[in-house]
Amino acid sequence: MTEDTFTITTDAGTIAGAAGTGGGPDLLLLHGGPGVTDYMALLAGETGGWRGIHYQQRGLAPSTTDGPFTVARHVADAIAVLDGLGVAHAVVLGHSWGAHLALQVALAAPDRITGVVAIDGPGLSGDGHAPELGAALRARLTHEEAERCAEIDERLGSPDATDADLVASTALLWGSYFAVRADAEPMPADLRASLAGTIGTMGSVYADEFADDAFAGKLAHLTTPTVVLAGAASPMPVAASEEVAGLLPRGEPVVVPDAGHLPWAERPGYVADALARLPGPA
Fold first, then answer.
1. Can you tell me the distance from the alpha carbon of 191 to that of 56, in angstroms, rounded to the nearest whole number?
2. Are 5 and 16 spatial neighbours (Cβ–Cβ below 8 Å)?
3. Beta bridge partners of 15
4. CA 126: distance to chain centroid?
5. Distance of CA 238 to CAs 69, 120, 214, Å?
6. What are the residues whose beta carbons fall under 8 Å from the beta carbon of 86, sequence distance 6 or more?
7. Which has the closest alpha carbon to 115: 105, 130, 129, 100?
8. Closest CA to 207 of 14, 92, 68, 28
9. 113, 27, 12: which is closest to 57 by C-alpha?
10. b or e along 73-83 (b: 16 or more beta carbons within 10 Å of the residue's beta carbon)?
11. Which of 133, 140, 156, 218 has its CB 3.0 to 4.6 Å from that of 176, i.e. a possible disulfide?
């Protein structure tokens, strides 16, 4: 697969990414995190026949490292990418936090987004099942790893926390995202993190979207066809995806057996099948 890189200028900085050159319907890919390196190239085996478009979300170079780190700003960035590339209609696929963002983009541009694939994202309100996710991740660690994780968590909760601490935490917990830690694929060697991007974005999710069931209220009116994938053995509770799918008028839940938070890695084909179930962009 060959790609051309691009840089889009927004009213709040630049967004950099890459788009496939082989033709096919447009597929906007939104990475999780938030505040981590774009890793959506890992899904290349699932997106054959599509023109994949992915970008580094704000917080890390080569995109702007500045905020605002709000849901509204991330949505505006995604739409700016579509505008800048001249994309009139697209399917959007998001993973983890990116699954939430994908739904928000569909809400903001229902005339342009023809389908959504939301992979193992958070729930609808309150804490989005974040405490359960964190507990499940740490429960899969060895005693020694758990002690090391506690040390990093303490630093992350202090005013002296750094981006390096967030990368160290991610590296330690990486295997716990898989159904079988011993079979986990290696974490991308180039993974970087923005603590400001992570804290700011998730703070906006909780305060602006999950409070008072604001997001749930909007989602109940989203008629875009949506496949919601959840890993049966993911540390993110399946209930989170079931909540989302159950509220969507045209939501289809799919639980991927023997898969964790990155289901394409352990059960190849399920993401491609989800895409095939959706109407392609006009």
1. 12
2. yes
3. 8
4. 19
5. 27, 8, 21
6. none
7. 105
8. 68
9. 12
10. bbbbbbbbbbe
11. 140
Residue of 250, 210, 194, 261 whose CA lies nearest to 71: 210
Q: What DSSP letter does each residue of 47-86 carry, written as one string?
A: -TTSEEEEEPPTTSTTS-------HHHHHHHHHHHHHHTT
Q: Tell the residue number behind the tokens 């295997």, with chain if given.
A: 175
256 with 74: CB under 8 angstroms? no
Q: How far apart are CA 201 and CA 270, in angstroms?
A: 28
Q: Which long-range contacts (CB under 8 A, 24 or more apart) does 238-244 make?
A: 239/123, 239/129, 240/120, 240/121, 240/122, 240/123, 240/128, 240/129, 241/118, 241/120, 241/121, 243/123, 243/124, 244/99, 244/103, 244/118, 244/121, 244/123, 244/124, 244/219
For 191-238, the pLDDT digits (tens) are: 999 999 999 999 999 999 998 889 999 999 999 999 999 999 999 999
